[in-house]
Amino acid sequence: MFPERFSTLPEYAFPRLRALLDVHEAGGEPVHMTIGEPKHAFPAWVTDVIADHAEGFGRYPVNEGISELRAEIAAWIARRYGVTVDAEREVMALNGTREGLYNAMMALCPEAKGGVRPKVLIPNPFYQVYMVGALSVAAEPVFLNATAETGFLPDFGAVAPEVLDQVAVAYLCSPSNPQGAVAERSYWEHLIGLAEKHDFYIFADECYSEIYRGEAPVGALQVAREMGADPERVVIFHSLSKRSNLPGLRSGFVAGGPKSITRIRQLRNYAGAPLPMPLQHAAAAVWADEAHVIENRAAYGEKYALADEIMADFPGYQGPQAGFFLWLPVEDGEAAALKLWTETGVRVLPGAYLSRDTDGGNPGTHYIRAALVAPKDEMAQGLIRLRDCLQR
Questions:
Q1: 230-250: b (≥16 Cβ within 10 Å) or e
Q2: Is the dihedral of CA 80, 83, 87, 89 positive or negative?
Q3: Contact residues for 18 (Cβ-Cβ < 8 A; gap 6+)
Q4: What's the pLDDT tens digit per position in 316-372?
Q5: What percent helix, strand, coil does the chain show, rounded to 5?
């Protein structure tokens, strides 16, 4: 009496990692570089805002987000991307973007496309909720390997036109997790053009958009508006987790066309878990403030520079354009992770745990992911141990 659609799911990455490593003693003082959980300080005044609105814990939260929160999100989108959105009709608050990335599939993916089971395009490696969202609506996940040869972004142009005609949704994470690649304006223009021609949604996961070096990454909704695309074509997802070092606040948002947001909101009336009211007020204040974001980005800039210095002679090293992960080439990701743990105490994630096997192989097999979230000195020590161990 159990559903078959989830029967072939691999074990989630972190339980799988614990099974690999925790049966062995650490070979040194542990340095955790596995989970993308920001460690920089969040704004100190956040707790004051929560305390000031603590009486709100005694009321049921507003499902779509209080008007103040949605207004601040819309204002941020306007400042960041130069795009005007209707805070009442085109924005909805989320209890973390994972909820939105999943429920948008439930709300917007049709039961069939062109008379057949719909397809969902997913970059490979990928954030695992993309695949589970597709399976939950009985769609067919189609994994597009994002490799060094493709600039660590999926090559949507390589998908056959007859396949694109069956696509209902294409997920894209930019800046990408784990590789830190950024989709340039021309890349978005090409993908949006394909979506317009073949009539599918683009779900743009932009949660790492505020951690970058150089110019700020262009946004999917921004490019879609510049192109005059169908207002419903692109749905964007953002979060305070990385931007503001607040993963525990669980505040994100989804924005898109009014018809799409209406459907997502209606489903959430039944199946969602809205953010508590005091946290919504805190989130509104955080979206309104940019000073802490600039400070946070500067701190990551120092880490980028330090990683570039330490890893300069590591074979195949490429510093990320954005985000806070290193995607490091190795002979075998699992073997490298086990070696690092047992010989040095450095804990990293095998790339294969973030990817799926395809006809072109598993694009994560020969990589490890290392998160640059620890304090700078600890991160540097971890990278030095990593470099020296894997080059022996």
A1: ebbbbbbbbbbbbbbbbbebb
A2: negative
A3: none
A4: 999 999 999 999 999 999 999 999 999 999 999 999 999 999 998 999 999 999 999
A5: 45, 15, 40
- Triad 142, 94, 192: Cα angle to 5°: 40
Helix, strand or coil, per DSSP, at residue 38: coil
Give the mean model confidence (pLDDT) for residues 96-113: 96
Q: Which two tokens stand for residue 236?
A: 């964007």
94, 270, 271, 310, 311 from 263: Cα distances, Å = 14, 12, 12, 49, 47
Question: Residues 327, 152: contact at Cβ < 8 Å?
Answer: yes
CA distances in angstroms from 362 to 131, 146, 365, 380, listed in the order given: 15, 10, 6, 29
Angstrom distance (rounded) from CA 240 to CA 248: 9
Element (H, E) at 201: strand 201-205
pTM confidence score:
0.97
How far, in Å, CA of 178 to CA of 241, rounded?
A: 16
Q: Which two tokens stand for residue 33?
A: 């570089």
| Cα→Cα distances 347→93, 157, 293, 302, 335, Å | 34, 37, 28, 22, 12
pLDDT in tens, 14-25: 999 999 999 999
Instruction: Assess contact for 269 and 89: CB atoms under 8 A.
Output: no
Task: Quote the DSSP letter at residue 346.
Answer: E
